[in-house]
Design brief:
Layout (H helix, E strand, L loop, with lengths): L1 H11 L5 E5 L3 H6 L5 H21 L4 E8 L7 H24 L3 E5 L7 H13 L7 E8 L1 H17 L10 H6 L11 E4 L18 E4 L9 H12 L9 H5 L1
Parallel strand pairs: 1-2, 1-5, 2-4, 3-4, 5-6
Helix pairs in contact: 1-8, 3-4, 4-5
The structure holds 3-methylbut-3-enyl trihydrogen diphosphate (2 copies) and magnesium ion.
The site of one 3-methylbut-3-enyl trihydrogen diphosphate has 10 residues, from helix 2.
Amino acid sequence: MLPLLKKQILEQGDMPAHIAIIMDGNGRWAKSRNLPRVAGHGEGINSVREIVRVCGEIGISYLTLYTFSSENWRRPRKEVSAIMKLLLGTIKKEIKNLHKNNVKLSSIGNLEDLPKDSCEGILEGIEMTQNNTGLNLILALSYGGRQELLMAIRRIADKIQSGEMKIDQVTEEKLTHELYTANVPDPDLLIRTGGEHRLSNFLLWQSAYTELYLSDIFWPDFREKALIDSIQDYQARQRRFGQTGEQITQ
Ligand code: IPE
Ligand code: IPE
Ligand code: MG
């Protein structure tokens, strides 16, 4: 059934070039099974593996995964360190397979906030896969949209102060250029799993015209079928970017 569905979405409409996902609901998935929260993070990795595989198979160019937010540092220390260990362990275990599948790994966010070994593990993965030409897998790590905008504004202010740039040269393009996502197109489809209806500081600038898909499914249960459903939903929409529907269909 699924290969057919995959074929169908490829044939029936525009595919999103960039999918961004807020992978939420690991803790509640675990709680509903009387398991510790970290078991939910562990199971969430199986969803990551499957979603990355499917995105590669259907030719998605960019997949950005909200993995750890700037605000997630506020969680209990034990949970934070368990997540950081899982992250490093997963990268070490999966990187060869990702490389084999032509996946190019990168990250957005303040990587330096991560424990040294996790940070180095990510950097090694990024280096190993830097020449790959398949799916661009972008991990948002210690990422916050406001922090990113602040960084960009400071960089621009610095250029103005040094005389490198004039105030009237500050454009949307220039600001975009200073973001972590400088060379990445804005997301077409933003999925949030886990039932919440908020952005939680994810890609605030970049998702100005992104199509939102909110799913009640907890991330560890969000697999191939759920992703295909979200793309089918996306394909049924009309993106108007401020124009009228008639203008778009003309
Ligand atoms: C998302 O799941 C994973 C991270 C934020 C790291 P949560 O851990 O937020 O799961 P819930 O929202 O508590 O269920
Ligand atoms: C967003 O989920 C961050 C990630 C999925 C990495 P949260 O669980 O941190 O979001 P809030 O706190 O419920 O808004
Ligand atoms: Mg959550």
